[in-house]
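Protocol step 4 of 6: structure prediction from sequence.
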Amino acid sequence: MLLVIVRLPWVGDLGMHAATVERLRHGLVHPGNPLVDADTPSPYYSPWTVFLGVVARLTGASVWVVLRLGALIGLTLLVTGVWRYARTLSDRRAAPPLALLCALLLWGTQAFSWSGFLGLNSLALTVAYPSVFALGAAFHLWALLTRALRGEPAGPVGWAVLPGLGVLWAVILLSHQFTGVVATLGVLATVVGARAGRRSLLRLGAGAVLGVVVLAVWPYYDFFALLGAGGLDEIHRPLYQHLFVRFCLVLVGVAALAVRARRDRRDPLVVFFLLGAVVFAAGGLTGHYSWGRALPAALIPAQTAAAVEAAGAARGARRNVS
């Protein structure tokens, strides 16, 4: 992946992200639309791209150097996020590296690439996109939330964690809206699985309110206006095609989820998978094909479950041998 960052292939929306950073370099307050010559708001102006624009402005580095730096930061955030999330689900030392391998490789027999998806092919083509940053932040969000609901850390710091996570949730939604939906489903699954008490729910509510405030006051575009945006369904129709050849290996993870569901019907990975599957299926049944971008909410828990269960089985096998 480091070689991909060095080469930074010009495919897909890379030019639009480069234009966004370049606009912000020349005008942080009124950058104008990055796609057309007009002084209009744009959802491309997210907290992540504003950060990259500030870096470009302060350092004077070319937009391609800044995008490479952003790709390196995003990839680091993603790897550490998957690692930390796996650690909250298993104390097996093999679980985090297996979770990374499953997230990258446990897909299907046909190459598939789309931003917001964790497959190796997708990641190689979109590593400089905001979606990679948002995915990495989402994994950290789930890991931090899981620890917070378990009472880690305790004391005054712990009381500040959940409201702070509301801000992180808003940053993810502003940076890549589709990944924000996946992050939200993961948060709901984590809360259900943790069987949060009244105090935790109150703090979660405070965090959610704070997150909504951040969404409402973001100055570069009206986030809530995007909820009524149309014209996205047809371009997302391919997400519902060739499902078996693209994702057949994920069935291994579905089997692992079945094992976990037998132990605990409110297992967070099981709930996460069900939420993602329901949203994805609803999109296909109603013709809202843009809802297919929620598919990672079903893939990620299945892949993670495969890794966690494999790590547990490997440890049990070693004990039997010894």
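Step 5 (inspection) to follow. The chain has one domain: 2-315.
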